[in-house]
Amino acid sequence: MKTFIKNNIYIIALIMTVGFAACDDFEEMNQNPTTSTDMDPNLMLPTIQMQLSGERYETWRNSFIYASDWMQLWTGEYATVEIGGKGQKNDTYMSALWDREYSREVRNITDMVERTKDSPEQVNINAVSRIMRVLIFHRLTDLYGDLPYFTAGKGYFEGVLKPTYDTQEDIYNDFFAELELATTALDPSADQVTQDFYFEGNIAQWKKFGNSLRLKLAMRLVKVNAAKAQSEAEAAIAGGVMESNADMAIMYHNNAPFNGGGMGGNGTSYTFMSASPDVSSFRICTTLAEQLESTGDPRITLMAGSYLDNKDRTDVSQEVYDEIGSYTDLSVLPSNFIWQAAGGTIEVDIDGAPTEVTGPLQLLQPAKALTAIDAPFIMMSYAEVKLLMAEAAFRGWSAGGDAATHYAEALAAGVMQYDAYGIELPDQGTIDAFVAANPLGAGTELEDINTQLWVNFAFNPMEAYSNWRRSGFPALAYPNVDPGINQTNGTIPRRMQYPINEYLLNEANLLEAVDRLDGGDDWTSRVWWDVQ
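The structure assignment produced for this chain is given below.
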């Protein structure tokens, strides 16, 4: 595990975070994000990496209140159910990712790219910056659609204080150009990337990550521009993508106590455990539990567990399962805040002592190891890459192998990636049996592959949401539990609406983008690549 640079980088990043605090004023967002024109870009990289997965604010709002409940992954927490599950609009919640990333990551990564682009001595850190810029912006455009891109964050460099909204098609075309440029430029004999949480400066792994990201983004286009999707996917695979779990892009977080904002620790963990350090408000959705249980997927015991409400979160999963007899019965129906779903109090044996376990504590919470504040966050996994390669192969594209083999390797990798959390994995025989029992189905290939991507994104719901929109799988029925207050037309929303502040601070440019949306600035309108 990447521990030898972790603590020192955390100190650097924490200091820089104070200097780069988010602001709400639009013009202030576009000012130079540093107080020094000679700041080493290598010192900025860990701050950006940490912030991308270390903040509760946007993780809770965009990823869990909304995307997680819509994707029927995790539910039970009050706002997740009452706002996301019941389909109620909240402007602050919808704009969270935009507000945070434009004021923070966008301006900082723009500074890194601009100040290294003409420096022969900074070839690698510039290439890494370009890859990170694509990573940051793809999350934004996938969620909102057209947005400021080409001139975003350039207030200091070019005096652009009200950037135009670029089309998502143009943005994606530039993503591919940037990733090709960056991965080609990366050179192991050039400058060292000295402060890096993801790969510890390993240039070969950065090249694989850049190509893997290119493959992911290529697959977004399968419905809107199949020819472009194929050419970009094939180029990415030919360039060299992740080859094992050792190549995963992982952010190793610190045990930094949540203080209302959260910094240093895992933002998903802050979200899961924000109500209490002893018990999570979240529970696994029936839809996900049924998928895992019906396929004999050993990840169900790695993802979730039943815990007592004490400081140790004593694990009673096996005892409760023996009593109940089904993991599905230990889950919560999508968008259902009825804790009695697990039945009444039961008595189980814990270390020889009879122990009462109430209904809420019988239900499966996110696993203890995965909700630790210092739990790692997998930004991109090898299993995801193998599933994308399986889809490429199924579509008849050049993918370095056949779909069934890529798929089988993805299932195994998806289980084994939980080793990153420091937990004991199932034995190899169990993993092999799971893979053998779930081959890629004839006639259900796209459904199988994208359902497994959905499972893979269980702790990254925004990605599950994006992949579901571009693929249509798994087939999710929206549980419209309260039609009287629902604002989604009884369907799963297709995007987030633009922030209210944009109408106040950049209205003319925003309205041009709104005019391009079929249905206007509504969360039932679709982004460019989300074609029916």
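Interim note for the steering committee: The first strand starts at residue 74 and ends at 75. The CA atoms of residues 229 and 494 lie 21 Å apart.
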